[in-house]
Every structure is written in C-alpha cells, then in structure tokens.
Design a protein that fits this description.
single chain, 629 residues, alpha+beta, Jelly Rolls, Glycosyltransferase, Maltose phosphorylase, domain 3, ten-stranded mixed sheet, six-stranded antiparallel sheet, 24% strand, alpha-L-rhamnosidase activity, Alpha_rhamnosid, Bac_rhamnosid_C
C-alpha cells in the first residue's frame, strides 16, 4: 500500500522460471540430499541468463488464513565440537559430540567431484559401537553430500533437522580431523532464564539434561521427541512440563502461540486435541492431555502474571469443562485414555486419573474466573460435587484410594481432593509405597511431576531427596549413570542388562520426566513465586539429601532473583531481590535468635524456619549451628 492509498500486489506468476538445483531432496523427517555439482553461480543476481530454465507452475491461491508469526524464530543457537572420533569399521568415521542435541552438522571436506558422503545421525550407539537408529522408526536420519571438487567445501543442511549425539560419516576422503564435523544446535530462539548449580554432580547433570531436553523439543511447537518419525505437539508432555519450562526459558510467546493451536484444534463440543497442531487422526479428550488447554494458560499466568493469556483462553477453558461434565457419569469420568503413561508396574485406574483431572481443571477454571472478574460460583459448586463423587467412588474410610499406586495418592493429595482427615493417612500410604519399592518411584508421565512436590507438601522432603538421589532403576540417576545427556522417554530406555527398550516407543530426548525441575528450582535453590509473575517472591531453600550447597538465578520480568546457600557448621544464605518486588525469606532455624542477618524484618517462626519480609536488594542470613541446631 502506497501513501496515496493505492495498492499493488506483487505475485509469482507465469513469468517466473525454475530449474533443478543442488538440493535434490529435503524433508524434516527424511533428511536432505545435496549435489554441489549442480550449484549455479549467480542465479539470484540481476542479469542472470535463465534461458534454459522452465516456466514455473502457477498454483491455486492459499485458502487458509495466513497470520504473522508471534513467537520467536527457530535459529542455530550454538555449535558443538566432537569430543572423540573413532573408526568402528573401515571407512566409517564416528564423531561423538558428547551431548544429545537437535539440529544438523557442518561438514568440511576436500575431495574429487562426484564423491558422495553419507552423514548418519543417532542418539545412542548399538552393541557393535555403530550408530543405532532402530528407535527412530521410519525416520531417515541421513544427509547426503556430493562433492563438486576443486578445494575445501562446506555443507550445512538447511531444510531438515535431526536429534542426535553421534554422527557417522562414510565416504569421507582419507581420515577426517575432529574439525571436519561441527554440531549446529537449533531451537526456538527465546532466552534462557535460569541457572542452577549445587555441590552434587548428579543434580547438576540432571538440570543440564532438563535444559537440553527443553532446548531439543522447543522448535516452533513443543514436541514430544525431536528424533523419530513423530515430532508432534503432544499435549500431555507440555501439560506436565510447562511450569519447569517457564523457569528455564522465556516461554510466554512460544506457549501463547501454541495455545492458539490448541484452540484451533478444539472440537465443536469442547474437547481439546491430544496433539496440537491437530492432525485429526490421534484423537482428543484424553485426561492429562486435553487438560493442557487449562493447565498451560494457568501456569503461564503464574509465571508471568499476564492475565491476557487467561482472557484469550477463557472461552475454550469453559467449553472443556462443559465437555468433561457432559461425558461423565455421576461426575465420574470413564476409564479411558493413556493413563499414567509409562509408569513402572503400577497401573493407576484410568477413571481415577480422569476424574482427578476433571476436578483439577474445574478448580483452575474457578480460579481463573476470580482473576478475570467472571462468576466462579458454577465451577466452585461443580468442583465440590466432583470431589464428593471422587471420594464416594474411589476412597475408602481409611484413606486408601482405588488402585493403591503412588500416582493415585499423588493426584488426590496434590489436587486437594481428599477430606482433611484423610490427608495424613493418604500421605503415609504414599511414603509406604515408595518404601515398599526400596525407595524407588513407580510413577509415569502424570504422577512424576507431582510426586516430589506432594512429598514436600505433606512433610516428607527427606523422602523426596531420597528419590532424587536414587541411582538404580527406576530413577533420574539411573539414566544419568547410563550416559543420558537429555531426559529419556522411559525410565529404562536402556535396560539394566544394557539392551534397549521396545523400538516402537523409545526416545532418548523426551522432556516429560524433566518436570522434576520445578521442584528442584523451588526447593533446592529456593526460588518460587508468591504471587503471579514474581511480583511477590518466596525464597525457601530446603537443605537435605546429599546437597550441602546450592546457588541459582532466575531472570524474572522484574529482574534477576538470586540465591546462594551453604550448610556446614552454620547455615548461610544470601539472596538478591529485584526492584519493585517484595519477598518472604524462610531461613531454616530452630529459633529466631539463632539467625543473624543483614536486611529483613522478622515475621514469625513457622515449620522450622525464621520467616523474614524483605524488599529489593541483597540480604544475608546466618543460622548458628545450622537448622538442625
């Protein structure tokens, strides 16, 4: 449009011409083939002679609505050099990048024209020491480059990406140097907002695995896995991971855009899809998956304090509750869906899970109504009735819950479904179930993110730490001790005997179990919002387990929040609070008189802590003799 109001439309019509170039094939799942001999110098410059080119084919107009991209673009964020190069077979060169990553490689090579180089990508190695790709199913993790000859050449695939740690190169002229391959890490280019460090190498690696899992699966949409022939926006994964993601990366724009995909996929009767963008062939309405249409807006509001995300999703959230109520019997949801996906020999009844999530989603919609000055009464009344139905159907008078699994108790406790008198018996039973498994978890996708928070909330932080430090299957430490550098889809993607799990469902980069990050950041480094958006901040580190010191930083919208603590003969804590915010700082202590401080006003003693109110600035605390006296 010009200044005088006139418009001009510049289109690609029959005057455009086309020719076959060096890019022979390209697909995000099937790799790229590039023949450098077919490069045409100057083809994009004025005056180029395109006499031999063919007229372009005119296609029909696009009928779909085209909108501007609102989230950050996907870009190459960093580069990784190999840590080792081996030759497992003659002419087969294996580059180990030391990190499961997502992106592509830069290949540097010199050789004769026509030499074809095959670049194969893998997350892990097989028993023979070569790239293992059976778990990628029909995805073809191969890029092929044909040399043009005449000197050093550089190849960087542009129209594909892979999930990999290992790069297997065949056809390379001679013996490649380590510099022949460089890993190019790509993801949605939003800034990272968290640092986390402790004196525990295990927990530091776990944090790294969580962050790399996020990095590898935030590519325009939140995928379930970036390597195999799927790479879809499965809603259950981001349902459990969005709170952790909001700590680690500025996720507001990314997930706000994705929520539009959720709304676009919502059915006429209010059901949210199991995958967004919705492919139309994977179903909808599954408990813990479709609920992401409610939980993700709420989690974003808690992280960033922006009510607009609630306002944008309010009609869709209400329609979801209407759908759940309509498709319930006596306010009990049917026993269908994925359940507590990939739990360990602990099958929580699906009707228990679905009804618990029905209550939880209703609770969040009622809370959203309060925030938006809408009427919460219908949802508060519905929530009361769902809880009553849940307890009648699934809870015995002594607090035992149908299924008697860790996840059953975790959901009932964390979603506040039980009468006050049954909370302690239920919490005690949860701890007993953990102990019966020799202090191991049995939870899957839906139970795991709530397991440690529930233990802490019910006074069992010591058990939470015991699970966090566990090194044998099933545990986070088990994965790390077997070389994991991202989160696995299964607790035993590599079994204790060294063999692989079923190739049909065995990703080595799948962030759902990384949802433990939220508990780590709130309870080890001790940084949590006391009000949406961190306008008010809760600082409450909980020393325990094998951790004797920790430090962290979260870049809130108001500025960085930092903590640093150590536990020796004394307990020391240093906290920095940004301007325009206030904080409550919970300092572990037996008595308030044991605490010396620079900054802060004592409010009270509570739950083994001296609680102080502070404003912005840096504050120092020391508990003589430590919190245990």
């Amino acid at each position: 449009m010009y200044a005088d109001g006139s418009t001009e439309r510049i289109t690609t019509d029959q005057q455009w011409r086309a020719a076959t170039g060096p890019l022979q094939t390209a697909d995000v799942l099937m790799g790229e083939e590039y023949d450098a001999r077919k490069e045409t110098p100057g083809w994009s410059s004025p005056g180029f002679d395109d006499t031999g080119w063919q007229p372009a084919v005119t296609a029909t107009d696009i009928t779909a609505e085209v909108v501007a991209q609102t989230d950050a673009p996907t870009r190459v964020e960093r580069e990784i050099k190999p840590v080792e190069v081996t030759e497992p077979a003659p002419g087969v060169h294996l580059f180990d990048l030391g990190q499961n990553m997502v992106g592509s490689v830069r290949l540097t090579v010199s050789g004769p024209a026509g030499r074809k180089i095959r670049i194969r990508h893998a997350e892990v190695l097989g028993p023979d020491g070569t790239a293992y790709t059976a778990n990628l199913r029909t995805a073809r993790p191969v890029d092929t480059y044909t040399l043009k000859g005449g000197g050093p050449e550089t190849y960087e695939p542009r129209f594909t990406f892979h999930g990999f740690r290992y790069v297997e190169v065949t056809g390379y002229p001679g013996k490649p140097s380590p510099d022949a391959v460089t890993g190019r890490v790509m993801h949605t280019a939003a800034p990272f907002t968290l640092s986390f460090h402790t004196d525990s190498a295990l927990l530091n690696q776990l944090h790294s695995n969580i962050t790399w899992g996020l990095r590898g699966n935030f590519l325009s949409i939140p995928t379930d896995t970036p390597a195999r022939d799927e790479r879809l926006g499965w809603t259950g994964d981001i349902n459990v991971f969005s709170s952790t993601a909001a700590y680690a990366m500025e996720s507001a724009r990314f997930l706000t855009k994705w929520l539009q995909d959720m709304r676009d996929g919502q059915t006429d009767d209010g059901s949210f899809p199991n995958v967004a963008p919705n492919l139309g062939d994977v179903g909808d309405g599954v408990a813990g998956w479709g609920d992401a249409g409610v939980t993700v807006p709420w989690n974003l509001y808690q992280a960033y304090g922006d009510t607009q995300v609630l306002r944008d999703n309010w009609p869709a959230m209400r329609r979801w509750i209407t759908y759940l109520e309509k498709h319930s019997t006596g306010l009990l949801r049917p026993a269908e869906g994925y359940g507590d996906w990939l739990s360990v020999e602990a099958d929580t009844p699906k009707d228990v899970i679905a009804t618990a999530y029905f209550a939880h989603a209703t609770d969040l919609v009622a809370r959203t109504a309060h925030v938006l000055d809408e009427d919460p009464a219908p949802y508060e009344d519905l929530l009361t009735r769902i809880k009553a139905a849940f307890n009648r159907a699934y809870v015995s008078p002594d607090g035992r819950i149908k299924g008697d699994t860790q996840t059953a108790y975790v959901l009932a406790l964390s979603m506040d479904l039980l009468p006050a008198a049954l909370r302690k018996p239920a919490a005690d039973r949860l701890v007993a179930l953990v102990q019966e498994r020799d202090w191991h978890l049995s939870t899957g996708f839906l139970g795991t993110p709530r397991l440690l928070p529930t233990l802490t909330e019910t006074g069992h932080t010591d058990v939470a730490y015991r699970l966090l430090h566990q090194r044998t299957f099933p545990s986070w430490g088990y994965q790390i001790d077997r070389g994991a550098t991202t989160m696995w889809e299964r607790w035993d993607s590599i079994k204790p005997d060294g063999s692989f799990q079923d190739v049909g469902m065995n990703s080595f980069n799948h962030y759902a179990y990384g949802s433990v990050g939220e508990w780590m950041y709130q309870n080890i480094t001790g940084i949590a919002p006391a009000a949406p958006g961190f306008r008010e901040i809760l600082i409450r580190p909980r020393p325990g387990g094998e951790v004797r010191s920790a430090e962290g930083r979260y870049d809130s919208l108001y500025g960085p929040v930092t903590t640093r603590w150590s536990q020796g003969e004394d307990f020391t804590l240093t906290v920095s609070i940004p301007v325009n915010t206030t904080a409550q700082i919970w300092v572990p202590a037996r008595r308030a008189s044991d605490v010396t401080r620079r900054g802060g006003r004592l409010l009270r003693m509570a739950d083994g802590c001296a609680v102080f109110a502070v404003g912005s600035g840096t504050h120092h605390f020391l508990t003589r003799g430590g919190p245990r006296g």
